[in-house]
Amino acid sequence: MAEKKTVISTDILQEAYKYGCKNNNELTPEMLQSLGWDNSLIIRILNIFTEKRLCSIKKSKLTSGNNQNKVFFILRSEIIASKLNKLTPDEYQVYCCIENAGNQGIWTADIRKVTGLQTHIVQRAVKLLCNELNLIKPIKSIHVKNRKVYILASLEPSKEIAGGTFYDNGEFDMTFVDYIQDKIIAILMSKRRATINEILDFINSESSVDTCSSRRSISLSDLESVLNMLIIESKILCFKINNTGEWLYMCIYWPSCLSTNIGVEDVPCLSCPVFNTCSGLFNTPILPCPQECIYLNFLLDKDISLYEKNQE
């Protein structure tokens, strides 16, 4: 049986800190007990970490069959702790309040309610934490105009607060959406058809980055929303390959004799009786496909070819 350590030292403190860093920056008394340390030593270690502002204290939520909150000590970096040690108790209280808010953020009125501090003290602390120490940052809320919430500088705000990829500083960024649409059209025109993952890789790849327009990567769900927008605008088609079940996207090349502002209700494919078996491939002698459709001229009452070749 390992001998229990009872004497505190710098080496013991460093060992405990490194052990917590390896465990997702979390420490609990039970974790330190597994190292064979005495309970009184563990309490002193955690008290020292708290006094030196090296950690914050969290409590787990109550669950069925568990009537006690489990206490976690969340370690902070030594750089952050060194900055926090410069704060007054009131300023540190404001920081902890913002830290506890997580990526949802908190605005100054709620900080006052939680801490009980006066308005000018909260405002002065927020200014110090934000402008001088760079420990927090303001985020514009998309729900309330001219309201800023504050989160830790190391966090990304939640979509509920900041709006996600297509919002910039609380405002919907239509320029960025147009940029993504242009990139989608570009790859579909060059490849003729592509999967959603191929489109995503193209947009987020370094080779497609336009330093004037591209400021951030997009997720799969972000891309789906833009693709759906282009489908509604009748600029692209989405069809399923029957033998693989894979969905492909391709551009719609409207003939010059048709209006480019054609409405969804005017697209004959949407009411086509063989829509589910239409493959969208160019070399299908058996299955129907848009390029060889025998119904389009009849439905549109025009002698046209649906797809026009690009002039080289």
Automatic annotation (TrEMBL):
Gene3D superfamilies: Winged helix-like DNA-binding domain superfamily/Winged helix DNA-binding domain. It is found in: Nucleus. One of its GO terms (biological process) is transcription by RNA polymerase III. GO terms for cellular component: cytoplasm; nucleoplasm; RNA polymerase III complex. Signal peptide: none annotated. Keywords: DNA-directed RNA polymerase, Nucleus, Transcription. InterPro entries: RNA_pol_Rpc34 (IPR007832), RNA_pol_Rpc34-like (IPR016049), WH-like_DNA-bd_sf (IPR036388), WH_DNA-bd_sf (IPR036390). It holds the Pfam family RNA_pol_Rpc34. PANTHER family: RNA POLYMERASE III DNA DIRECTED , 39KD SUBUNIT-RELATED. Belongs to the eukaryotic RPC34/RPC39 RNA polymerase subunit family. DNA-dependent RNA polymerase catalyzes the transcription of DNA into RNA using the four ribonucleoside triphosphates as substrates. Specific peripheric component of RNA polymerase III which synthesizes small RNAs, such as 5S rRNA and tRNAs. This is DNA-directed RNA polymerase III subunit RPC6. It comes from Cryptosporidium muris (strain RN66). The lineage of its organism: Eukaryota, Sar, Alveolata, Apicomplexa, Conoidasida.
